[in-house]
Amino acid sequence: MEALITLLPGDGIGPEVVASGRAVLDRIAERHGHQFSYREALAGGAAIDETGSPLPDETIDACLEADAVLLGAVGGPKWSDPNAPVRPEQGLLKLREVLGVYANLRPVRVLPELAGASPLKAERLRGVDLVVVRELTGGIYFGEKTRTATSASDLCTYTVAEIERIVRVAARLAASRRGRLCSVDKANVLETSRLWRDTTNRVMASEFPEVRLETLLVDAAAMHLLSRPADFDVIVTENMFGDILTDEASMLAGSLGLLPSASLGDSKRGLYEPIHGSAPDIAGKGLANPAATIASTAMLLRHSLELDVEASAVEVALAGVLRAGARTADLAAAGEEALSTGAFTAAVIDALS
Ligand code: NAD
């Protein structure tokens, strides 16, 4: 197949890990007879320096014309003044809005060989393979805000349509995996959560009877994620709860350098990025772990290009290389040899032969 992929390297280690992702996509194209073409565009701090905007119009056009977008990371100390009128993260928020991506998927899988990288006991992590689906464009982060000298408020709003569409994304995903969905809310206290629960129950009963639905209050879910993480398949939740639970879930895997994400909307076009930031402390040194970005390219192949076989090939190659002991500096044990970003990428590419 032919596909146009827009690359947004961004800042810090972004360009290094996006180069790894592209190299893996090139190998997949070569091995499976596809033609992938790329357009590289500015985003984040690099875009502010060049154009004054964290998401210039040419970047927006390049993303809207593409079949998928692969982003590295944005931000860094140079642009971190909270009083600055333009900031790199504004580019990310605008990009999600422009692309209409309302579902953020974050898979967490723990390889037994890497269980030692997690702060949790290895026996708790056996079999962990879950995906958190976070609603990305509604809820309290986007509601009306007020502030006086003595009080402040943030409005949390959800519509039935917003809940239905995210529940459908999560349920379809659950149906393609182990057939279990856990919906997380705070229905004992919040009206938006009661609407969330009623809507979820209705959609699941009428449209996905084959998927087993569990409902948890967010405080209990936070606890269960640590006490029985292997029991979860797909978790669906609203924006703020998802923000918090996805960071908690990322600690199951131990290193930020391992975890991919996809942000999806109604069209096939998605935004794919590692969950880590721009890691300015290690930028430009060849120390970045490209695994999260490589795993993000697998999600890109699966969700935007519908190339399931190719997506699995990337995941199998990546897991195989990690199982065989390849480690970048963030994962290497004391005294263990650490591979550079390029050497680790080359090992994954070799495994794709
Ligand atoms: P970070 O994720 O960049 O780094 C946290 C720690 O993890 C650092 O010690 C870093 O070296 C390490 N790390 C992260 N990714 C790694 C990788 N692939 N390989 C090896 N080590 C890795 O988070 P931070 O330090 O809080 O933020 C740095 C900058 O990134 C800030 O400007 C922040 O705003 C931005 N940020 C951007 C995104 C994004 O673009 N989506 C997300 C989070 C943070």
Give a verbal description of the structure.
The chain has 353 residues and is an alpha/beta fold. It has 2 domains: 1-102 and 260-353, 3-Layer(aba) Sandwich (Isopropylmalate Dehydrogenase), CATH 3.40.718.10; 119-253, Isopropylmalate Dehydrogenase (3-Layer(aba) Sandwich). It is built from 12 helices and 12 strands. The strands form 2 sheets. Strands 2-1-3-12-11-4-5-10-8-9 form a 10-stranded mixed sheet, with helices on both faces. Helix 11 crosses helix 12. The model has no long low-confidence stretch (mean pLDDT 96). The structure holds nicotinamide-adenine-dinucleotide (NAD). Nicotinamide-adenine-dinucleotide is lined by residues 13, 73-76, 80, 92, 256-257, 273, 276-282, 288-289, 292, 330.
Write the layout of secondary structure elements.
Layout: E1 2-10, H1 14-32, E2 35-40, H2 45-51, H3 57-64, E3 68-73, H4 88-99, E4 103-109, H5 122-125, E5 129-135, E6 145-147, E7 152-154, H6 160-175, E8 180-185, H7 191-207, E9 212-217, H8 218-227, E10 234-237, H9 239-253, E11 260-264, E12 270-274, H10 291-303, H11 308-323, H12 341-351
Helix pairs in contact: 1-10, 1-12, 6-7, 8-9, 10-11, 11-12
Bound molecules: nicotinamide-adenine-dinucleotide.
Structure characteristics:
single chain; about 350 residues; Isopropylmalate Dehydrogenase; 2 domains; 10-stranded mixed sheet; 12 helices; globular; binds nicotinamide-adenine-dinucleotide
